[in-house]
Design brief:
Length: 189
C-alpha cells in the first residue's frame, strides 16, 4: 500500500511540474484525447487520474497506469477511450483475457472506434488468432477506406505476423504497437 501511495504521490507531483498540453495522438471517438472526453482544463479527480494514466502510458509504465484508468473508468463507465486504454495496458502487461474484455466493452459502446479495432487486431495476433486479426483489419478497411493510421499499423502487423514457431525475420522484429502513441478511434492523427 505504501508503494502505491508513493507512486501516486510521485506521479501527482510530476503532473504539477509538467505542462498541461499533453497529447498521445488521441484515445478514441472524437479526436484528441483530452478534448474528446471532456477533460480538457478540468481539475476533476477523474481527469487527474486519466491524465496521470496517459503520462504513465507514454513512459511505458503500463502496470502503474492501470489503477488510474480504473479510477477514471469508475467515474465514466461508458467511455470507450478509457476502456480502450484499459485494454491496451492490460495487453502490454500480458493480461490478454482482461484486455480482450475491455476491448469488447469499448466496442459495445462505440462499434466504430478505430483505435480499439487496431489494438484488438494486435491482441489477436499476440494470441495467435490470425483470422480474427484479419477480421479487425477488414473492419478498419471499411471504417477508413481511404486509409488511416490505425489501418496502416494493423496492416503492417498482420503482414509481419508469423504463427507460433514461425521464423520469419519480419515477425521477429515487428513491434506489437508503438506505446508512446496509442491510436485513436477518431480522425487520423
Amino acid at each position: 500500500m505504501r508503494t502505491l501511495l508513493s507512486v501516486l504521490a510521485l506521479t501527482s507531483a510530476l503532473i504539477v511540474v509538467t505542462t498541461p498540453s499533453f497529447s498521445m495522438g488521441g484515445g478514441g471517438g472524437g479526436g484528441s484525447m483530452g478534448g474528446s472526453m471532456g477533460y480538457g482544463g478540468t481539475t476533476a479527480p477523474e481527469a487527474d487520474d486519466y491524465k496521470v494514466a496517459l503520462r504513465l502510458i507514454k513512459h511505458e509504465q503500463y502496470q502503474e497506469a492501470i489503477p488510474h484508468l480504473l479510477m477514471a473508468h469508475a467515474n465514466k463507465p461508458q467511455d470507450a477511450d478509457i476502456l480502450n486504454y484499459l485494454g491496451f495496458t492490460n495487453r502490454m502487461t500480458g493480461h490478454f483475457d482482461s484486455s480482450l474484455n475491455y476491448y469488447k466493452q469499448a466496442l459495445a459502446i462505440d462499434p466504430n472506434h478505430k483505435g480499439v479495432h487496431e489494438y484488438l487486431g494486435e491482441l489477436y495476433l499476440q494470441m495467435h488468432d490470425q483470422a480474427s486479426a484479419q477480421h479487425e483489419l477488414d473492419t478498419l478497411a471499411s471504417l477508413c477506406p481511404s486509409g488511416c493510421d490505425e489501418r496502416d499499423v494493423l496492416t503492417k502487423a498482420v503482414a509481419a505476423y508469423a504463427p507460433a514457431g514461425g521464423t520469419t525475420p519480419a515477425a521477429a522484429s515487428a513491434p506489437a504497437a508503438s506505446p508512446a502513441t496509442p491510436s485513436s478511434g477518431g480522425a487520423s492523427n
